[in-house]
Amino acid sequence: MIKAAHLVKKFGSSTAVNSISFDVKEGENLILLGTSGCGKTTTLRMVNRLTEPDSGTIFLNGTDIRSQQPETLRRGIGYVLQNHGLFPHYTVAENIAIVPRLLKWESSKTGKRADELFEKLNLDPAIKDKYPAALSGGQQQRVGLARSLMVNPPVLLMDEPFGALDNLTRISIRKEFRVLDELVKKTIIMVTHDVQEAFEMGDRICLMDKGEIMQIGTPEDLLFRPANNFVANFLDEQRLQLELKSVLLEEILPGSAKNISVWDQMESLLQVNAYPDDAPGDALTIESLMAAFSKYKKR
Ligand SMILES: Nc1ncnc2c1ncn2[C@@H]1O[C@H](COP(=O)(O)OP(=O)(O)O)[C@@H](O)[C@H]1O
Ligand SMILES: [Mg+2]
């Protein structure tokens, strides 16, 4: 769906992005991960032509993105900016109507779509007449996402979408977004410096350093098959949690529920353990889960 080939971007004498290449398949969630200044935002902005590369090419569905007007291109690509990016002097309703207005949507159509997204994103319709400054961080982030989804673009670019939120809000919004039907089917490139976030949200992760790709692969590839010392060291501090998040339950206990990580299973066990009377007699325990996980790692 998206193919970036040998992107280079210099600012003056410093090279922000140095020959980056990657593919994103339809419906996939690719994470650009790395410390501040490694070139993630610059890479993302090249995909919707907010930044033009010095060299290299990006193809969207096989077509060079330079063959389209940037404005036309951007209508098919939702963009969630770092720190929500809402216009402060526009109300929430005005903010989310920007792209529909460009596309000359009837106001009733815009209103209906907004209502639908507000419901899915757990936003109170009463905030529509408020200005962004009157909203909580979590609400601002949800409105920023609603705005990017209004015209249902097939591709979504998200730059540190949870960066401005406190830890607990971030973790719960992340969980919600992961299962949101509007996002599940989209092709997404998301930027983050948060390793846990990358592992929770990404189908594949592109770990960058100083404008270059250190490794691109599934969370399991990076964890269990690091391409070099940089990758291994980058993940070392959080390794155990990352392993628990990236290994699926059915990998360590064949025949169990698909698509739930060992970590998610642990979290739900902790809830069950808080109400032990509700647990079936032969229920999985944290102990049996950890034993199976250790066995899996030694395989
Ligand atoms: N418009 C710009 N002008 C000059 N330097 C820039 C500009 N945008 C980014 N840079 C520089 O390019 C490098 C990569 O920046 P950026 O892509 O924003 O990194 P990240 O998003 O990973 O934190 C940094 O050194 C940054 O200072
Ligand atoms: Mg950035």
UniProtKB/TrEMBL annotation:
GO terms for molecular function: ATP binding; ATP hydrolysis activity. Residues 2-235 form the ABC transporter domain. GO terms for biological process: quaternary ammonium group transport. Pfam families: ABC_tran. Gene3D superfamilies: P-loop containing nucleotide triphosphate hydrolases. Keywords: ATP-binding, Nucleotide-binding, Transport. InterPro entries: AAA+_ATPase, ABC_transporter-like_ATP-bd, ABC_transporter-like_CS, P-loop_NTPase. SUPFAM superfamilies: P-loop containing nucleoside triphosphate hydrolases (SSF52540). PROSITE patterns: ABC_TRANSPORTER_1, ABC_TRANSPORTER_2. Belongs to the ABC transporter superfamily. PANTHER family: OSMOPROTECTANT IMPORT ATP-BINDING PROTEIN OSMV. This is Osmoprotectant transport system ATP-binding protein. The lineage of its organism: Bacteria, Pseudomonadati, Bacteroidota, Sphingobacteriia, Sphingobacteriales.
